[in-house]
Fold:
Amino acid sequence: MADTSDSGFYITAGIGTGLEHDIDGSIEGNDFSATGRTTFSGGIGFGYELDSNVRVEAGVSRSTGDVDSITIDGIKYDVDESGNNTNFSVAVAYDFENDSRITPFISGSYGIRWSEDADESSNLFGIDVGVSTPVSDDLELWGAIGMGITQDETHDIDGDSIKTDGTTAWGFSTGLRIRL
Structure:
């Protein structure tokens, strides 16, 4: 949506998945390392494109993550656990205007995540690099590679104090922007 003559409101919808990553931490003082990934994420949002190729968005998404293994005290256990999260995020993006039908963009985001099993929310930060291309006058297809960043956190989950170290996770997403 880098055409500055078409600034205005839009809605967006997208889906994505994540790459496998490790999460380190402790449960009641016992160190652990878990391996998992976001298997599916989907969301909707509302945005506004400014005349300066800057976009501002807010969105809600729902994601499912799977944990494949956990290592405690050097012993690896294969597990098959999954959990769901609801996320609210705000983002700022910049479209690199050019003479091509493909417009590169970069965005940064801040989000709040609520996990089904946790009593507290957690903070998320994200950086995306992607491209978009028009499908019609009011419809645009986009795709991105993103990195999610979390900070060190402590949560009470089912009565246990669980501490996790900050981590980064990579993922892919795609979706549509519909100009209003």
User: Anything to note?
Assistant: The chain has a mean pLDDT of 92. The chain has no helices and eleven strands. The longest strand covers residues 75-95. The CA atoms of residues 11 and 46 lie 4 Å apart.
